[in-house]
UniProtKB/TrEMBL annotation, chain A:
Catalyzed reactions per annotation: a quinone + NADH + 5 H(+)(in) = a quinol + NAD(+) + 4 H(+)(out)
Family of this protein: Belongs to the complex I subunit 6 family.
Source species of the chain: Aliikangiella coralliicola
InterPro entries listed in its UniProt record: NADH_UbQ/plastoQ_OxRdtase_su6, Nuo/plastoQ_OxRdtase_6_NuoJ
Keyword NAD in record: yes
Record carries keyword Nucleus: no
Stated name of the protein: NADH-quinone oxidoreductase subunit J
Subcellular location: Cell membrane
Enzyme class, first EC level, given as a word: translocase
Gene Ontology MF term list: NADH dehydrogenase (ubiquinone) activity; oxidoreductase activity; quinone binding
Mode of membrane association: Multi-pass membrane protein
């Protein structure tokens, strides 16, 4: 057994253990921390694939930013854990069946057919001076430059939309809207009611009842 | 095939992006409440885009950016239609948002971003580019709808649109990923080359089903139509007019690129699915519209029916039938814009116009507008000599030529059903007993815009060739 295989299986074991703990841990903060562990071991596996940049960015983006935000949310919200776990045992058999069924489907896909491991050659090891970042950058700024730029525009839209939807301007401003004042008309402001000149007071029945 | 970075092919897109950034900065320093300068610059940039696009007409087909971008006649004609209809829609929008909380520079900015997204959608030559264009369009539209923050209805429909749009994108992406797995490429021309030599396997078919579902979701075709009436109803009217018209044109471009250009080899696989979806849309759209009392919802269900007719044009699978479908979708965009123009026109400052019965007495007291609105309705119903008739005729003609006689008869029968609710609107305008004159408070520019839009429907109806020749040239049928 080579060193690589040992590293792979140990990271894979960590990954599976962490993933299981994410869904079975009783405390949601612990679950979130196990998710961090899962990400970290996944990034170790990516490192084995010689995708260093992706491995590092997985740590930086997911562990560093996304999970910390998630932890904040989990800590700030008061979640009723007991209610969440109700019916866990009752639904467990069904859940297990579905999980096993899904596993069987995935297993058959990986071993047979178009997406099986045999259909794809295992990646050849890269030369020593190979730089993952350089390769990614080359592809990103040549073959996919257009898509890259469009993605940037999408982010710009996201910024504008976020500002447009949340910014309400200064609050305590009593400015005149001249166009609104000019557009004011009699119909919208004035209500003319037709009334008789003299109106006799109606005899109320409750008074009569009181007199009797 | 040209793999180089030919930036001259994306001149229009670069121009629009620069114009957007300039307008964004200019808008920041504006003190004018009505944002006249922002509006002028927006319209001006659309006009410049139109001129740029007009220069590109009849240019040779070119593929650039490593296969991710295509510049052909189809893209140019669709873009010209997008610019024109957005231009008219913004005139309606300006009149509508003027006295509302919607009056902000971002309205114009987001509209222009949506236009940019649509331009990318119609000239994307890879799944990735098309998807990114679609997301750019959708994100701008979600934000546009949500712009009316204090309205419960608008927020609700924005969230609905967001969730349904996300679902549709998910379907589309899932299909694309399966096709990528089967063919090993996301470039459309490579995918079609792959299928020219290889057999269609199960995975590709599976992916194709998901792509068709995603497209049907985006079009709002039955049975994926549930979101459409709610969103058309809930959005502010000027935004409904925009989402109901222009994105449909871009979605047509996407459909041609995804289905016809990538999967042209197995047309029999997808045309049957499209046929079912189309016939269901024609039937359900027309029948449910009969029960609507709210003009916006009525137009939404009629939109579903129209999408059905348009999809019927894609079914025969000949270039001539595609150009008929393209003609249909452009004309439909123009008509539905006028239809929602009525809603905008009849809205007063305080409340948005809603019910059909609010039109009562319009023919008696404002005969000109009564006449204009009748033109819109009759045109939508597809009665000659108005513009709505010709594309329908072309679509039925191509169905019958290619042997879909029964399908054509069903579609025509439901077209007659549809006539009922269009005429009902006219009935309310002219024949309802009322002594109350409906209030018309809209500005002069809106009055002119809606008159021009409606007269355009008559004029183009008398000269149906004026648009159709461009649609034919887009598929290389005439040069």
């Amino acid at each position: 057994m080579s060193f690589q295989v040992i590293v792979f299986y140990s990271f894979a074991a960590w990954l599976i253990f962490a993933a299981l703990m994410v869904i079975s841990s009783k405390h949601s903060v612990k679950a979130a921390l196990f998710l961090v562990l899962a990400f970290a071991s996944a990034s170790g596996i990516w490192m084995l694939l010689e995708a260093e940049f992706l491995a590092v960015s997985l740590i930086v983006v997911y562990v560093g930013a996304v999970m910390v935000l998630l932890l904040f949310v989990v800590m700030m919200l008061d979640v009723d854990y007991a209610a969440l776990r109700q019916g866990f045992v009752k639904k467990l058999p069904l859940a297990l069946i579905i999980a096993l069924g899904f596993f069987a489907i995935l297993y058959s896909f990986i071993t047979h057919g178009d997406f099986s491991g045999e259909a794809y050659a295992s990646p050849a090891p890269k030369p020593e001076d190979y730089s993952n970042i350089k390769e990614l950058g080359r592809v990103l700024y040549t073959d996919y430059v257009l898509a890259f730029e469009i993605a940037a525009v999408i982010l710009l839209v996201a910024i504008i939309a976020a500002i447009a939807l949340t910014f309400r301007g200064r609050r305590s401003r009593k400015a005149q809207v001249i166009s609104k004042q000019l557009a004011a008309n009699k119909k919208n402001r004035l209500k003319v009611l037709k009334m008789d000149a003299v109106k006799t007071a109606p005899k109320s029945e409750s008074n009569e009842e009181a007199e009797e | 095939m040209n793999d180089s970075m030919n930036f001259s092919l994306i001149t229009s897109e670069i121009f629009l992006l620069i114009a957007l950034c300039v307008i964004m900065i200019v808008d920041l320093f504006q003190r004018d409440k009505e944002r006249k300068l922002t509006f002028t610059l927006t319209q001006l940039s659309l006009f410049v885009l139109f001129v740029l696009g007009f220069n590109d007409l009849n240019a040779p087909k070119e593929i650039a950016f490593n296969g991710h971008w295509i510049a052909d006649q189809l893209a140019v004609v669709l873009k010209l239609a997008i610019y024109t209809i957005t231009f008219i829609a913004l005139f309606y929008a300006r009149a509508f948002i003027n006295h509302r909380s919607l009056m902000r520079g971002e309205y114009y900015l987001l509209t222009l971003f949506a236009v940019l997204g649509m331009m990318i959608m119609v000239s994307g030559n890879s799944f990735l580019t098309i998807y990114l264009g679609l997301e750019l369009l959708s994100l701008s539209l979600y934000a546009l709808i949500a712009l009316q923050r204090d309205s419960k209805l608008a927020s609700e429909s924005a969230v609905k649109y967001f969730v349904m749009g996300g679902l549709a994108s998910g379907f589309l992406l899932y299909g694309i990923s399966l096709v990528y797995g089967a063919t090993g490429s996301i470039i459309i021309s490579s995918v079609s080359d792959y299928y020219a030599t290889n057999q269609v396997n199960l995975i590709s078919q599976f992916g194709l089903v998901f792509i068709v579902i995603g497209l049907a979701f985006k079009f709002g075709a039955v049975p994926f139509h549930m979101w459409l009436p709610d969103i058309y109803h809930g959005s502010p009217s000027s935004i409904t007019a925009f989402i109901a018209s222009v994105p449909k044109i871009a979605a047509f471009g996407m459909l041609i690129r995804l289905l016809v250009e990538a999967f042209g080899q197995f047309i029999s696989d997808w045309s049957e699915m499209i046929l079912i979806v189309a016939l269901l849309s024609v039937a359900f759209g027309n029948v449910i519209a009969l029960a609507q009392r709210n003009l916006k919802r009525l137009l939404a269900y009629s939109a579903i029916a129209h999408v059905g007719y348009f999809l019927l044009g894609v079914v025969p699978g000949t270039d001539a039938s595609y150009s008929a479908a393209m003609y249909y979708i452009i004309v439909y965009a123009l008509m539905t814009l006028a239809g929602f123009g009525i809603v905008i026109f009849m809205s007063t400052d305080k409340n948005e116009y809603q019910q059909i019965t609010d039109l009562q007495g319009l023919g008696k007291y404002h005969p000109w507008y009564g006449l204009m609105f009748s033109v819109v309705m009759v045109s939508m119903a597809g009665i000659p000599p108005f513009i709505g008739f010709w594309p329908k005729l072309e679509i039925f003609r191509h169905l019958i030529i290619n042997g879909f006689v029964l399908e054509a008869i069903i579609a025509i029968a439901f077209s007659v059903v549809g006539l009922f609710y269009y005429l009902q609107v006219i009935k309310e305008m002219f024949f309802a007993e009322t002594n109350e004159s409906p209030a018309i408070t809209s500005s002069r520019s809106l009055k002119i815009a809606i008159s021009i839009n409606c007269l355009l429907l008559i004029m183009l109806g008398i000269m149906p060739d004026s648009i159709y020749q461009y649609c034919l040239s887009a598929f290389g049928l005439i040069s």
